[in-house]
Fold this protein.
Amino acid sequence: MIRFENVTKQLGQKTVLDGIDFEVGEGETFVIVGLSGAGKSVTLKHMIRLMAPDDGKVLIDGEEISEMDRADLRHVREKFGVLFQSAALLQWMSVFDNVALPLREHTEAAEDEIRERVMEKLEMLGLDDAAEKFPVDISGGMQKRAGLARAIIMDPKIVLYDEPTSGLDPVTSRRIDGLIVNMREQLGITSVVVTHDLHSALAIGSRIMMLHEGRIVENAPPEGFIKSKDPTVQSFLESQYITKKGKWEGMGHE
Amino acid sequence: MRYPVHSAQRVGGRVIQLLHDTGHGMFMLFEAIWFVQFAFGKRSRLETATQMYTTGIKSLAVITVVALFTGMILALQTGLELRRYGQEVYIGSAVAVSMIREMGPFMTGLIIAASVGSAIAAQLGTMTVSEEIAALEVMSINPNRFLVMPRLVALCVMMPVLTVYTNILGIMGGAVVGTTQLGVSVTSYMDNATEFATNKDLYVGLFKAFVFGIIITTVACHQGFMTTEGAVGVGKATRRSVIISFLVILIVGYMITRMFYL
Protein backbone atom coordinates (compact mmCIF):
# COMPACT_ATOMS: atom_id res chain seq x y z
CA MET A 1 0.00 0.00 0.00
CA ILE A 2 2.76 2.43 1.04
CA ARG A 3 6.30 1.57 -0.01
CA PHE A 4 9.54 3.50 0.51
CA GLU A 5 12.47 2.43 -1.66
CA ASN A 6 15.89 3.74 -0.70
CA VAL A 7 14.47 7.18 0.20
CA THR A 8 17.03 9.85 1.00
CA LYS A 9 16.31 13.38 2.12
CA GLN A 10 18.69 16.12 3.08
CA LEU A 11 17.58 19.33 4.81
CA GLY A 12 20.34 21.92 4.86
CA GLN A 13 23.51 20.12 5.90
CA LYS A 14 21.68 17.30 7.68
CA THR A 15 20.74 13.97 6.12
CA VAL A 16 17.31 13.43 7.63
CA LEU A 17 16.49 10.20 5.79
CA ASP A 18 19.41 8.01 4.75
CA GLY A 19 18.20 5.46 2.21
CA ILE A 20 15.25 4.00 4.09
CA ASP A 21 13.18 1.05 2.82
CA PHE A 22 9.93 -0.14 4.33
CA GLU A 23 6.40 -1.13 3.41
CA VAL A 24 3.04 -0.58 5.10
CA GLY A 25 0.39 -3.20 4.30
CA GLU A 26 -3.37 -2.73 4.03
CA GLY A 27 -5.20 -2.65 7.37
CA GLU A 28 -2.01 -2.23 9.39
CA THR A 29 -1.47 0.26 12.20
CA PHE A 30 2.12 1.11 11.47
CA VAL A 31 3.84 3.15 14.16
CA ILE A 32 7.02 5.16 13.58
CA VAL A 33 8.96 6.03 16.72
CA GLY A 34 12.26 7.72 17.40
CA LEU A 35 13.94 10.61 19.12
CA SER A 36 13.25 14.21 18.11
CA GLY A 37 14.89 14.97 14.76
CA ALA A 38 15.07 11.29 13.80
CA GLY A 39 13.08 11.91 10.60
CA LYS A 40 9.64 10.62 11.67
CA SER A 41 7.53 13.59 10.55
CA VAL A 42 9.65 13.97 7.41
CA THR A 43 8.85 10.34 6.57
CA LEU A 44 5.14 11.05 7.06
CA LYS A 45 5.31 14.15 4.84
CA HIS A 46 6.86 12.09 2.04
CA MET A 47 3.79 9.81 2.01
CA ILE A 48 1.57 12.71 0.90
CA ARG A 49 4.30 14.57 -0.96
CA LEU A 50 4.40 17.56 1.30
CA MET A 51 8.08 16.73 0.80
CA ALA A 52 9.73 14.92 -2.11
CA PRO A 53 12.78 12.67 -1.73
CA ASP A 54 16.19 13.75 -3.02
CA ASP A 55 16.72 10.15 -4.04
CA GLY A 56 14.66 6.97 -4.02
CA LYS A 57 10.96 6.28 -4.56
CA VAL A 58 7.73 6.61 -2.61
CA LEU A 59 5.00 4.34 -3.97
CA ILE A 60 1.34 4.49 -2.99
CA ASP A 61 -0.66 1.50 -4.24
CA GLY A 62 2.18 0.91 -6.71
CA GLU A 63 2.21 4.47 -8.08
CA GLU A 64 5.38 6.51 -7.73
CA ILE A 65 4.30 9.92 -6.37
CA SER A 66 7.56 11.89 -6.29
CA GLU A 67 7.26 13.17 -9.87
CA MET A 68 3.46 13.19 -10.19
CA ASP A 69 1.65 16.23 -11.59
CA ARG A 70 -0.92 18.03 -9.48
CA ALA A 71 -3.99 16.30 -10.94
CA ASP A 72 -2.61 12.80 -10.34
CA LEU A 73 -1.35 13.80 -6.93
CA ARG A 74 -4.85 14.94 -6.02
CA HIS A 75 -6.19 11.45 -6.75
CA VAL A 76 -3.48 9.92 -4.57
CA ARG A 77 -4.15 12.39 -1.74
CA GLU A 78 -7.86 11.47 -1.83
CA LYS A 79 -6.80 8.14 -0.34
CA PHE A 80 -5.38 9.90 2.71
CA GLY A 81 -6.65 11.68 5.77
CA VAL A 82 -4.10 13.43 7.96
CA LEU A 83 -4.26 14.38 11.61
CA PHE A 84 -1.57 17.01 12.09
CA GLN A 85 0.35 17.47 15.32
CA SER A 86 -1.39 20.80 15.99
CA ALA A 87 -4.71 19.49 14.56
CA ALA A 88 -4.36 22.33 11.96
CA LEU A 89 -8.00 23.42 12.19
CA LEU A 90 -8.79 26.68 10.41
CA GLN A 91 -9.20 29.10 13.29
CA TRP A 92 -11.89 31.30 11.75
CA MET A 93 -14.22 28.37 11.11
CA SER A 94 -16.38 26.46 13.60
CA VAL A 95 -15.65 22.79 14.24
CA PHE A 96 -18.62 21.92 12.01
CA ASP A 97 -17.35 24.07 9.14
CA ASN A 98 -13.83 22.67 9.50
CA VAL A 99 -15.10 19.11 9.20
CA ALA A 100 -17.48 20.07 6.37
CA LEU A 101 -14.75 21.84 4.38
CA PRO A 102 -13.56 18.86 2.27
CA LEU A 103 -17.17 17.97 1.43
CA ARG A 104 -17.98 21.53 0.38
CA GLU A 105 -14.79 21.78 -1.67
CA HIS A 106 -14.84 18.42 -3.42
CA THR A 107 -18.44 17.29 -3.64
CA GLU A 108 -21.70 18.75 -4.89
CA ALA A 109 -23.52 17.43 -1.79
CA ALA A 110 -26.47 19.50 -0.57
CA GLU A 111 -26.14 21.27 2.76
CA ASP A 112 -28.57 18.78 4.43
CA GLU A 113 -26.43 15.84 3.37
CA ILE A 114 -23.26 17.61 4.49
CA ARG A 115 -24.83 18.26 7.90
CA GLU A 116 -25.81 14.61 8.23
CA ARG A 117 -22.37 13.30 7.30
CA VAL A 118 -20.50 15.79 9.49
CA MET A 119 -22.72 15.17 12.52
CA GLU A 120 -22.29 11.42 12.08
CA LYS A 121 -18.49 11.78 12.35
CA LEU A 122 -18.70 14.29 15.20
CA GLU A 123 -21.01 11.96 17.16
CA MET A 124 -18.66 9.05 16.51
CA LEU A 125 -15.84 11.09 18.06
CA GLY A 126 -17.98 12.50 20.88
CA LEU A 127 -17.93 16.04 19.54
CA ASP A 128 -21.57 16.64 18.62
CA ASP A 129 -21.93 19.23 21.39
CA ALA A 130 -18.92 21.17 20.13
CA ALA A 131 -20.03 21.47 16.50
CA GLU A 132 -20.69 25.19 16.61
CA LYS A 133 -17.67 26.06 18.76
CA PHE A 134 -14.50 27.56 17.34
CA PRO A 135 -11.13 25.78 17.71
CA VAL A 136 -9.88 28.37 20.18
CA ASP A 137 -12.82 27.56 22.49
CA ILE A 138 -12.18 23.82 22.81
CA SER A 139 -9.47 21.77 24.55
CA GLY A 140 -6.39 20.29 22.87
CA GLY A 141 -7.90 16.80 22.97
CA MET A 142 -11.13 18.03 21.38
CA GLN A 143 -9.11 19.83 18.69
CA LYS A 144 -7.33 16.55 17.89
CA ARG A 145 -10.66 14.74 17.65
CA ALA A 146 -12.05 17.50 15.43
CA GLY A 147 -8.92 17.18 13.26
CA LEU A 148 -9.51 13.43 13.11
CA ALA A 149 -13.17 13.98 12.14
CA ARG A 150 -12.00 16.19 9.28
CA ALA A 151 -9.35 13.63 8.30
CA ILE A 152 -11.93 10.84 7.93
CA ILE A 153 -14.88 12.82 6.52
CA MET A 154 -14.05 11.76 2.93
CA ASP A 155 -13.74 8.10 4.04
CA PRO A 156 -10.01 7.72 3.24
CA LYS A 157 -8.25 4.36 2.98
CA ILE A 158 -5.24 5.56 4.96
CA VAL A 159 -5.01 7.95 7.92
CA LEU A 160 -1.70 9.49 8.96
CA TYR A 161 -1.32 10.68 12.55
CA ASP A 162 1.52 13.06 13.40
CA GLU A 163 2.12 12.92 17.16
CA PRO A 164 -1.59 12.39 17.95
CA THR A 165 -1.07 12.34 21.72
CA SER A 166 1.58 15.02 22.14
CA GLY A 167 0.62 17.73 24.60
CA LEU A 168 -2.36 15.74 25.92
CA ASP A 169 -2.92 14.37 29.41
CA PRO A 170 -2.61 10.55 29.82
CA VAL A 171 -6.37 9.96 29.99
CA THR A 172 -7.04 11.91 26.80
CA SER A 173 -4.02 10.25 25.16
CA ARG A 174 -5.46 6.79 25.82
CA ARG A 175 -8.81 7.98 24.45
CA ILE A 176 -7.10 9.06 21.21
CA ASP A 177 -5.33 5.64 21.13
CA GLY A 178 -8.74 4.01 21.41
CA LEU A 179 -10.02 6.07 18.49
CA ILE A 180 -7.07 5.01 16.33
CA VAL A 181 -7.79 1.36 17.11
CA ASN A 182 -11.49 1.93 16.34
CA MET A 183 -10.58 3.45 12.96
CA ARG A 184 -8.96 0.13 12.04
CA GLU A 185 -11.54 -2.16 13.62
CA GLN A 186 -14.72 -0.33 12.60
CA LEU A 187 -13.71 1.32 9.33
CA GLY A 188 -10.84 -0.91 8.17
CA ILE A 189 -8.59 2.11 7.81
CA THR A 190 -4.83 1.67 7.42
CA SER A 191 -3.04 3.91 9.90
CA VAL A 192 0.46 5.32 10.07
CA VAL A 193 1.22 6.89 13.44
CA VAL A 194 4.25 8.99 14.33
CA THR A 195 4.81 9.20 18.07
CA HIS A 196 7.33 9.51 20.88
CA ASP A 197 4.99 7.66 23.19
CA LEU A 198 6.05 4.01 23.31
CA HIS A 199 3.18 3.01 25.60
CA SER A 200 0.81 4.25 22.92
CA ALA A 201 2.85 2.60 20.15
CA LEU A 202 2.81 -0.78 21.89
CA ALA A 203 -0.93 -0.53 22.58
CA ILE A 204 -2.10 0.39 19.08
CA GLY A 205 0.61 -0.73 16.66
CA SER A 206 0.55 -3.87 14.55
CA ARG A 207 4.15 -3.01 13.64
CA ILE A 208 6.63 -0.53 15.08
CA MET A 209 9.52 1.00 13.17
CA MET A 210 12.21 2.99 14.91
CA LEU A 211 14.19 5.65 13.10
CA HIS A 212 17.51 6.88 14.40
CA GLU A 213 19.67 9.47 12.63
CA GLY A 214 17.75 8.93 9.39
CA ARG A 215 18.07 5.12 9.38
CA ILE A 216 15.75 2.31 10.36
CA VAL A 217 17.11 0.54 13.42
CA GLU A 218 14.10 -1.73 14.02
CA ASN A 219 10.91 -2.68 12.20
CA ALA A 220 8.94 -5.38 13.99
CA PRO A 221 5.61 -6.26 15.63
CA PRO A 222 5.29 -4.95 19.23
CA GLU A 223 6.37 -8.21 20.85
CA GLY A 224 9.45 -8.36 18.60
CA PHE A 225 10.17 -4.66 19.06
CA ILE A 226 10.49 -4.83 22.83
CA LYS A 227 12.84 -7.82 22.52
CA SER A 228 15.05 -6.02 20.00
CA LYS A 229 18.77 -6.37 20.67
CA ASP A 230 19.54 -3.03 19.05
CA PRO A 231 21.09 -0.79 21.73
CA THR A 232 19.26 2.32 20.42
CA VAL A 233 15.90 0.53 20.74
CA GLN A 234 16.81 -0.78 24.17
CA SER A 235 17.84 2.67 25.30
CA PHE A 236 14.57 4.09 23.94
CA LEU A 237 12.54 1.39 25.74
CA GLU A 238 14.42 1.98 28.99
CA SER A 239 13.88 5.74 28.72
CA GLN A 240 10.15 5.01 29.01
CA TYR A 241 10.58 2.38 31.74
CA ILE A 242 9.55 -0.56 29.56
CA THR A 243 11.16 -3.97 30.18
CA LYS A 244 11.82 -6.67 27.61
CA LYS A 245 8.67 -8.37 28.86
CA GLY A 246 6.69 -5.29 27.91
CA LYS A 247 6.08 -4.34 31.54
CA TRP A 248 6.41 -0.90 33.03
CA GLU A 249 9.41 -0.62 35.30
CA GLY A 250 9.45 2.60 37.29
CA MET A 251 12.62 4.19 38.64
CA GLY A 252 14.02 2.08 41.45
CA HIS A 253 11.34 -0.64 41.11
CA GLU A 254 11.40 -4.17 39.70
CA MET B 1 41.76 34.64 0.40
CA ARG B 2 38.94 32.83 2.18
CA TYR B 3 37.01 35.93 3.21
CA PRO B 4 36.30 37.33 -0.29
CA VAL B 5 35.29 33.87 -1.53
CA HIS B 6 32.85 33.55 1.36
CA SER B 7 31.49 37.04 0.71
CA ALA B 8 30.96 36.25 -2.96
CA GLN B 9 29.23 33.01 -2.01
CA ARG B 10 27.02 34.84 0.44
CA VAL B 11 26.05 37.50 -2.10
CA GLY B 12 25.50 34.86 -4.77
CA GLY B 13 23.40 32.80 -2.40
CA ARG B 14 21.25 35.80 -1.57
CA VAL B 15 20.76 36.68 -5.23
CA ILE B 16 19.70 33.09 -5.98
CA GLN B 17 17.34 33.14 -2.98
CA LEU B 18 15.88 36.49 -4.11
CA LEU B 19 15.28 35.16 -7.63
CA HIS B 20 13.76 31.98 -6.23
CA ASP B 21 11.43 33.94 -3.92
CA THR B 22 10.43 36.34 -6.70
CA GLY B 23 9.68 33.43 -9.01
CA HIS B 24 7.64 31.74 -6.29
CA GLY B 25 5.71 34.95 -5.65
CA MET B 26 5.04 35.48 -9.36
CA PHE B 27 3.84 31.89 -9.77
CA MET B 28 1.51 32.38 -6.82
CA LEU B 29 0.19 35.63 -8.32
CA PHE B 30 -0.40 34.17 -11.80
CA GLU B 31 -2.20 31.17 -10.37
CA ALA B 32 -4.37 33.43 -8.20
CA ILE B 33 -5.17 35.58 -11.27
CA TRP B 34 -6.26 32.45 -13.13
CA PHE B 35 -8.57 31.58 -10.23
CA VAL B 36 -10.21 35.04 -10.28
CA GLN B 37 -12.90 33.57 -12.58
CA PHE B 38 -14.16 31.63 -9.52
CA ALA B 39 -14.17 34.66 -7.18
CA PHE B 40 -17.93 34.78 -6.89
CA GLY B 41 -18.56 31.06 -7.37
CA LYS B 42 -20.24 28.92 -4.71
CA ARG B 43 -16.99 27.99 -2.97
CA SER B 44 -15.31 31.41 -2.83
CA ARG B 45 -17.94 34.14 -2.76
CA LEU B 46 -18.25 34.26 1.03
CA GLU B 47 -14.49 34.56 1.51
CA THR B 48 -14.22 37.17 -1.28
CA ALA B 49 -17.03 39.23 0.28
CA THR B 50 -15.47 38.91 3.73
CA GLN B 51 -12.12 40.11 2.42
CA MET B 52 -13.74 43.04 0.61
CA TYR B 53 -15.49 44.02 3.84
CA THR B 54 -12.25 43.70 5.84
CA THR B 55 -10.23 45.68 3.30
CA GLY B 56 -12.82 48.32 2.51
CA ILE B 57 -15.14 48.98 5.43
CA LYS B 58 -12.74 48.22 8.27
CA SER B 59 -10.09 50.55 6.83
CA LEU B 60 -12.44 53.52 6.46
CA ALA B 61 -11.80 55.07 9.88
CA VAL B 62 -8.02 55.33 9.55
CA ILE B 63 -8.25 56.37 5.89
CA THR B 64 -10.71 59.12 6.80
CA VAL B 65 -8.35 60.67 9.33
CA VAL B 66 -5.23 60.30 7.17
CA ALA B 67 -6.94 61.62 4.01
CA LEU B 68 -8.46 64.65 5.75
CA PHE B 69 -5.18 65.66 7.34
CA THR B 70 -3.17 64.97 4.17
CA GLY B 71 -5.43 67.42 2.31
CA MET B 72 -5.23 69.94 5.15
CA ILE B 73 -1.43 69.77 5.34
CA LEU B 74 -1.12 70.07 1.56
CA ALA B 75 -3.44 73.08 1.51
CA LEU B 76 -1.69 74.77 4.41
CA GLN B 77 1.86 74.30 3.12
CA THR B 78 1.01 75.19 -0.47
CA GLY B 79 -1.35 77.98 0.53
CA LEU B 80 1.21 79.72 2.75
CA GLU B 81 3.73 79.78 -0.10
CA LEU B 82 1.14 80.89 -2.66
CA ARG B 83 -0.06 83.66 -0.35
CA ARG B 84 3.41 85.24 -0.47
CA TYR B 85 2.69 85.88 -4.15
CA GLY B 86 -1.03 86.63 -3.68
CA GLN B 87 -1.93 83.40 -5.54
CA GLU B 88 -3.66 81.47 -2.73
CA VAL B 89 -6.72 81.10 -4.94
CA TYR B 90 -4.81 78.30 -6.70
CA ILE B 91 -4.61 76.00 -3.68
CA GLY B 92 -7.68 74.16 -4.97
CA SER B 93 -5.81 72.99 -8.05
CA ALA B 94 -2.63 72.23 -6.10
CA VAL B 95 -4.47 70.04 -3.61
CA ALA B 96 -6.73 68.35 -6.20
CA VAL B 97 -3.95 67.50 -8.65
CA SER B 98 -1.59 66.31 -5.89
CA MET B 99 -4.25 64.15 -4.30
CA ILE B 100 -5.67 62.63 -7.48
CA ARG B 101 -2.36 62.00 -9.25
CA GLU B 102 -0.09 60.97 -6.41
CA MET B 103 -1.08 61.39 -2.79
CA GLY B 104 -4.45 59.62 -2.94
CA PRO B 105 -3.22 56.27 -4.31
CA PHE B 106 0.09 56.56 -2.46
CA MET B 107 -1.40 57.28 0.98
CA THR B 108 -4.11 54.64 0.49
CA GLY B 109 -1.47 52.13 -0.58
CA LEU B 110 0.67 52.79 2.48
CA ILE B 111 -2.29 52.56 4.86
CA ILE B 112 -3.59 49.34 3.32
CA ALA B 113 -0.08 47.81 3.21
CA ALA B 114 0.43 48.65 6.89
CA SER B 115 -3.00 47.52 8.08
CA VAL B 116 -4.48 44.94 5.69
CA GLY B 117 -1.18 43.70 4.18
CA SER B 118 0.41 43.13 7.58
CA ALA B 119 -2.73 41.34 8.79
CA ILE B 120 -2.67 39.06 5.73
CA ALA B 121 1.02 38.25 6.25
CA ALA B 122 0.44 37.54 9.95
CA GLN B 123 -2.61 35.37 9.30
CA LEU B 124 -1.06 33.31 6.51
CA GLY B 125 2.22 33.13 8.44
CA THR B 126 0.42 31.74 11.47
CA MET B 127 -1.45 29.29 9.24
CA THR B 128 1.84 28.17 7.70
CA VAL B 129 3.62 27.50 11.01
CA SER B 130 0.57 25.79 12.51
CA GLU B 131 0.37 23.46 9.47
CA GLU B 132 -3.00 24.80 8.31
CA ILE B 133 -1.61 25.48 4.83
CA ALA B 134 -0.20 21.94 4.70
CA ALA B 135 -3.62 20.65 5.79
CA LEU B 136 -5.26 22.53 2.90
CA GLU B 137 -2.77 21.01 0.45
CA VAL B 138 -3.40 17.52 1.77
CA MET B 139 -7.15 18.12 1.36
CA SER B 140 -6.33 19.12 -2.26
CA ILE B 141 -7.57 22.65 -1.57
CA ASN B 142 -5.27 24.99 -3.48
CA PRO B 143 -4.16 27.76 -1.05
CA ASN B 144 -3.78 30.16 -3.98
CA ARG B 145 -7.45 29.69 -4.83
CA PHE B 146 -8.72 29.41 -1.26
CA LEU B 147 -6.67 32.19 0.35
CA VAL B 148 -4.80 34.35 -2.17
CA MET B 149 -7.44 34.86 -4.86
CA PRO B 150 -10.17 36.32 -2.57
CA ARG B 151 -7.63 38.74 -1.08
CA LEU B 152 -6.37 39.70 -4.53
CA VAL B 153 -9.89 40.44 -5.77
CA ALA B 154 -10.72 42.35 -2.58
CA LEU B 155 -7.64 44.57 -2.75
CA CYS B 156 -7.84 45.16 -6.51
CA VAL B 157 -11.49 46.25 -6.20
CA MET B 158 -11.26 48.14 -2.92
CA MET B 159 -7.98 50.00 -3.51
CA PRO B 160 -9.39 52.18 -6.34
CA VAL B 161 -12.63 52.68 -4.36
CA LEU B 162 -10.71 53.72 -1.25
CA THR B 163 -8.47 55.95 -3.36
CA VAL B 164 -11.51 57.84 -4.67
CA TYR B 165 -12.65 58.19 -1.05
CA THR B 166 -9.17 59.42 -0.02
CA ASN B 167 -9.15 61.91 -2.89
CA ILE B 168 -12.55 63.32 -1.97
CA LEU B 169 -11.71 63.64 1.72
CA GLY B 170 -8.28 65.11 0.97
CA ILE B 171 -9.80 67.76 -1.27
CA MET B 172 -12.44 68.45 1.40
CA GLY B 173 -9.72 68.78 4.04
CA GLY B 174 -7.94 71.26 1.77
CA ALA B 175 -11.19 73.19 1.37
CA VAL B 176 -11.57 73.46 5.14
CA VAL B 177 -8.08 74.95 5.49
CA GLY B 178 -8.52 77.13 2.39
CA THR B 179 -11.76 78.68 3.58
CA THR B 180 -11.00 79.00 7.30
CA GLN B 181 -7.31 79.94 7.27
CA LEU B 182 -6.42 81.28 3.84
CA GLY B 183 -9.56 83.22 3.01
CA VAL B 184 -10.40 81.34 -0.19
CA SER B 185 -14.13 80.84 -0.81
CA VAL B 186 -15.49 77.31 -1.24
CA THR B 187 -16.77 78.13 -4.73
CA SER B 188 -13.43 79.52 -5.81
CA TYR B 189 -11.57 76.54 -4.28
CA MET B 190 -13.81 73.98 -5.99
CA ASP B 191 -13.85 75.78 -9.35
CA ASN B 192 -10.08 75.90 -9.29
CA ALA B 193 -9.80 72.26 -8.24
CA THR B 194 -12.05 70.98 -11.05
CA GLU B 195 -10.50 73.25 -13.68
CA PHE B 196 -6.96 71.90 -13.41
CA ALA B 197 -7.51 68.22 -12.54
CA THR B 198 -8.01 66.17 -15.70
CA ASN B 199 -9.63 62.81 -16.38
CA LYS B 200 -6.18 61.44 -17.15
CA ASP B 201 -5.05 62.34 -13.62
CA LEU B 202 -7.97 60.38 -12.23
CA TYR B 203 -7.43 57.32 -14.45
CA VAL B 204 -3.69 57.19 -13.79
CA GLY B 205 -4.33 57.53 -10.05
CA LEU B 206 -6.87 54.72 -10.09
CA PHE B 207 -4.57 52.55 -12.21
CA LYS B 208 -1.85 53.08 -9.61
CA ALA B 209 -4.26 52.09 -6.85
CA PHE B 210 -5.16 48.90 -8.74
CA VAL B 211 -1.49 48.00 -9.23
CA PHE B 212 -0.75 48.76 -5.56
CA GLY B 213 -3.54 46.33 -4.65
CA ILE B 214 -1.78 43.58 -6.61
CA ILE B 215 1.57 44.47 -5.02
CA ILE B 216 0.25 44.43 -1.44
CA THR B 217 -1.57 41.11 -1.90
CA THR B 218 1.37 39.42 -3.60
CA VAL B 219 3.96 40.58 -1.08
CA ALA B 220 1.79 39.89 1.98
CA CYS B 221 0.61 36.43 0.86
CA HIS B 222 4.07 35.40 -0.30
CA GLN B 223 5.71 36.51 2.94
CA GLY B 224 3.01 34.65 4.87
CA PHE B 225 3.57 31.43 2.94
CA MET B 226 7.36 31.70 3.35
CA THR B 227 7.13 31.95 7.14
CA THR B 228 9.31 29.66 9.24
CA GLU B 229 10.49 29.70 12.88
CA GLY B 230 7.12 29.89 14.65
CA ALA B 231 5.93 33.07 16.34
CA VAL B 232 9.23 34.87 15.73
CA GLY B 233 8.93 34.03 12.04
CA VAL B 234 5.40 35.43 11.91
CA GLY B 235 6.70 38.72 13.32
CA LYS B 236 9.52 38.79 10.77
CA ALA B 237 7.15 37.99 7.89
CA THR B 238 4.79 40.78 8.94
CA ARG B 239 7.62 43.29 9.19
CA ARG B 240 9.11 42.23 5.84
CA SER B 241 5.69 42.40 4.21
CA VAL B 242 5.21 46.05 5.23
CA ILE B 243 8.75 47.12 4.32
CA ILE B 244 8.77 45.38 0.92
CA SER B 245 5.28 46.68 0.08
CA PHE B 246 6.30 50.26 0.95
CA LEU B 247 9.44 50.05 -1.19
CA VAL B 248 7.73 48.44 -4.18
CA ILE B 249 4.81 50.91 -3.99
CA LEU B 250 7.27 53.82 -4.04
CA ILE B 251 9.27 52.46 -6.96
CA VAL B 252 6.30 51.31 -9.04
CA GLY B 253 4.42 54.56 -8.26
CA TYR B 254 7.35 56.52 -9.68
CA MET B 255 7.54 54.29 -12.76
CA ILE B 256 3.83 54.68 -13.52
CA THR B 257 4.03 58.47 -13.13
CA ARG B 258 7.03 58.53 -15.45
CA MET B 259 5.29 56.26 -17.95
CA PHE B 260 2.21 58.49 -18.22
CA TYR B 261 3.62 61.99 -17.73
CA LEU B 262 7.09 62.02 -19.26
Remarks:
- Chain B has a mean pLDDT of 92.
- The radius of gyration of chain B is 22 Å.
